[in-house]
Amino acid sequence: MKNVYITKTSHFLPNQPISNDEMEQRLGMINNMPSKAKRIVLRSNGIKTRYYAIDDKGNITHNNAQLTKEAVSRLFGEDFKEEDMELLSCGTSTPDNILPSHAAMVHGLLNVGSIELNSASGVCCSGMNALKYGFLSVKSGASNTAVCTGTERVSPLMLSKKFNNEVESLKELEERPIIAFKKEFLRWMLSDGSGAFLLENEPKGNTPLRIDWMQGYSYASELEVCMYSGGEKNEDGKLKPWSEYEPEEWLSKSIFSIKQDVKILDEHVIDRIGLSTKDALSKNNITVDEIDYYLPHISSFYFEDKLFTELVNRGIEISKDKWFLNLDRVGNVGSASVYLMIDELKNSGKLKKGDKILAMIPESGRFSFFHVFLTVC
Q: Which of 106, 143, 218, 368 is in the most buried spot, having the most CB atoms within 10 Å?
């Protein structure tokens, strides 16, 4: 087995940063009324700016494949040319199409020949599933190079016009003309962007990061669906898929909007992060003192102190001065978030040889988690 190194990183964030005051202007008001939930959600999540693949006139500027292509293209140069890429492994929760696969659509935009492709689905962990595929391919010697990505383009799903039919239905029922909080909540949480890593079997370039291990967990057998799209939850907690609804219901019930059961999220996510973190560190014989940087992908600063307390209670006290977060500046970009954190840290000039980095990626879809351990070489 070979060692695997992240030798280059890149990112692409579309257009200009959007402030909190500009969000509703860019996404539109539902039923022409300012959101009552927006202020509450933004106060809790602590995000100050984010990026949308939508211009100030409401035109879509990039699809998901184009965002990914932009990040991948930034990896190419004198030391890594298009013809050197052997594997493209892409993760996203918001592909442009049901099929062909996301990776195939990205490959179609790149000026490269025949390569191996892998597309990973899911929510935030899809980017890590894509990374693990590339990691195992290079580690086994099946490929010498792999490009792995995490990308999201959620903004078109959050445009107010996507909810108009549902608003009309609520009016007819003489209910309050607002979208249920589980649907509106994520309008103020999610944003667009892409990150890419080049994996090689030699420690090339500036501050290469050796991937020491990746540990994944799922608690789907214990917990019900929390975050979902393309369906609706029944009262018994089971998810009814979009294909079992009538076509007119896809709009009237906004079936394809991204929804989250915030009660289940708050009840379980921090506990399972603590449980999986303790197990991952134990399995790989890592002590807290060995960790120089902690990169937790948290969706909101609301969870920051809760996570710190949970880790302390499990005997994993990682001091706050070791935490590296950029949520306030780039927003919650789902599967791309950890790519953006690692890219920013790698290029910050802060890292020195021998530093150890622990990244934690939670996914509330049905509660999946990834822990990644890196060493600066």
A: 106
Give residue-wise pLDDT tens across range 141-186: 999 999 999 999 999 999 988 877 665 555 554 454 445 566 688 9
Please state whether beta strands 209-218 and 5-12 pair in parallel, antiparallel, or not at all (unpaired).
Answer: antiparallel
* Alpha carbons 374 and 358: distance in angstroms, whole number: 7
The answer to whether 256 and 289 are in contact (CB under 8 A) is no
- C-beta of residue 53 within 8 angstroms of C-beta of residue 155: yes
Report whether 127 contacts 335 (CB < 8 A): yes
- Rg (C-alpha) for the chain, rounded Å, is 20
What is the rounded distance in angstroms from the CA atom of residue 34 to the CA atom of residue 113? 49
Q: Can you tell me whether residue 67 is helix, strand or coil? A: helix
Give the tens place of pLDDT for each residue, 28-48.
Answer: 998 888 888 898 899 999 999
By CB neighbour count within 10 A (0-12 exposed, 13-18 middle, 19+ buried), where does 107 fall?
buried
**How far is the C-alpha of 376 from the C-alpha of 5, rounded, in Å?**
9
Q: Is the pTM of this model over 0.85?
A: yes
Residue 358 structure tokens: 């622990």
Length of the chain in residues, anyone? 377
